Amino acid sequence: MNYDCQVNFYCKRQALHRATRDISRAIASHAGVIERALLRRKISSSPMKTLFYRSHFHRRQFRWRPSRITTHLHHASAKNDPSVIFVDSFVDRWYRSPKARTGREAMSVEGKVVIVTGAARGIGQEYVRALAAAGARPVAADVSDCSETIDLAKSAGGKALGVKCDVADASSTDAMVAAALKAFGRVDALINNAALYGGLRGGRFETITEADWDAAMTINVKGIWNCCKSAVPALRAAGGGSIINIASLAATFGTPFVLHYTTSKAAVIGMTRGLARELGRDNIRVNAVAPSAVITEGTREFFANKLDKALDVVKSGQAIQRNLQPSDLSGTILWLVADTSAFVTGQTISVDGGTVMN
Ligand SMILES: NC(=O)c1ccc[n+]([C@@H]2O[C@H](COP(=O)([O-])OP(=O)(O)OC[C@H]3O[C@@H](n4cnc5c(N)ncnc54)[C@H](O)[C@@H]3O)[C@@H](O)[C@H]2O)c1
Questions:
Q1: pLDDT at residue 131, rounded to an integer
Q2: ∠ at Cα 281 (277, 283), nearest 5°?
Q3: Domains contained in the chain, number
Q4: Is the per-residue pLDDT at 125 higher than 70?
Q5: Is residue 356 part of a domain?
Q6: Which of 75, 106, 137 is where one domain is finished?
Q7: Looking at ligand 1, which residue's alpha carbon is closest to its atom 38?
Q8: How far apart are CA 324 and CA 291, in angstroms?
Q9: DSSP-derived secondary structure for 62-112
Q10: What is the model's pTM?
Q11: 244 φ, ψ to 5°?
Q12: For an engineered disulfide with 110, which of 70, 135, 242, 358 has Cβ 3.0 to 4.6 Å away?
């Protein structure tokens, strides 16, 4: 059996012993699910150990996962012991047998730390909102201010960390991952969503300027490479994880008159496949998601006064006759973050209403 368990809790110094005992007892009562001895070892070697010794408590906050274990910990350690004032327990990937992966827990993204780039608006913002609503701990990274995204996460009942980051700059992506580790102690997934899209100038291939071509490649391709280089050590340290690269129908279909964009998204698919083969041994899966035209600010900017016509053309090529909304993508993203997709890697999943069929 292969376990990866961690329980973090904040309590008053004098309550440490009692809280540890209560949590151990709670876990012991689920002996068939988790081996107590292993969990005890994980607690004592947890990187969050120093939190045990904080003499002052943090604000009262309980965020409960659907898992029976965390619920039990809640009762044993928080409710019955008023001196334990904050319990943040996540028991994820706790039982990596195929049997456990079929349960409700395995579907869950609860407690997972997920970095989403390009999260200040549009689709990235929706990913952060959906992840926060599902109990994950998203990190919203963008060159622009993410405070609107953080507010959305809050109103969805969760919370998110905002980080300024330029994916084209390797030192900036390193700092993004460092901020996630500082805040949450681990990284479980990376969603490479940032791209030069809304601000792109289209046209026949020979009219695209060299500067525009280079900018698309720098942000859309090199940006993902930078983020992966920064995040993979943290994913390895977490025992594995999920990288999701946002490609596009532009690549799977071959959209004309934006050759720099189309080419950059085709590169994303190639990078996904090569990286999946390199990182499989680290239990890191790498997949791409290829949406068709989604109604976002970026799409409005991109098509400008041709928006309605463009959306009609896209719709007419789909099996499902309506345009894609950002929320249509959330289910696929949550599934790829969750352990349920643990054996899916190197794939490009089209969320395009049935435009391109493989
Ligand atoms: N909207 C669509 O129709 C559509 C379709 C298929 C694929 N996609 C892809 O989905 C993703 C999001 O699309 P969107 O419509 O939300 O785009 P958008 O243009 O609205 O948002 C992109 C976000 O990325 C950020 N960003 C740009 N450059 C960055 C950089 N160097 N570092 C960090 N952040 C940066 C922007 O500030 C912005 O918040 C993109 O990868 C896009 O190519 C979009």
A1: 97
A2: 100
A3: 2
A4: yes
A5: no
A6: 106
A7: 118
A8: 8
A9: ----SSHHHHHHIIIIIIS-TT--EEEEE--S---SHHHHTSHHHH--TT-
A10: 0.76
A11: -120, 120
A12: 135
* pLDDT tens-place string over residues 228-254: 999 999 999 999 999 999 999 999 999
Pocket test for ligand 1, best of 115, 123, 196, 328 (most atoms within 8 A of CB): 123
Amino acid present at 259: L
Q: For residue 116, report the phi and psi dihedrals to the nearest 5 degrees.
A: -120, 115
Q: Among residues of the chain, what percentage have pLDDT more than 90?
A: 66
**Nearest-atom index, ligand 1, CA of 199:** 19
Going from the Cα of 321 to the center of ligand 1, the distance in angstroms, rounded, reads 24
For ligand 1, the distance from its centroid to the CA atom of residue 197, given in whole angstroms, is: 6
Whether the predicted pLDDT of 220 surpasses 80: yes
CATH number of the domain within which 170 lies = 3.40.50.720
Catalytic residue among 10, 127, 197, 261: 261
Q: Is 3 a catalytic residue?
A: no
Q: Domain span at residue 273? A: 109-351
What's the chain's average pLDDT?
79
Domain finish residue from 47, 80, 106: 106
Closest CA to 153 of 178, 175, 136, 177: 136
Least confident piece of the model among 59-63, 82-86, 186-190, 271-275: 59-63
pLDDT at 350: 97
Runs of H (alpha helix) within the chain = 16-28, 36-44, 68-73, 98-101, 104-107, 122-133, 147-155, 170-184, 210-217, 223-237, 249, 259-279, 297-303, 307-316, 327-337
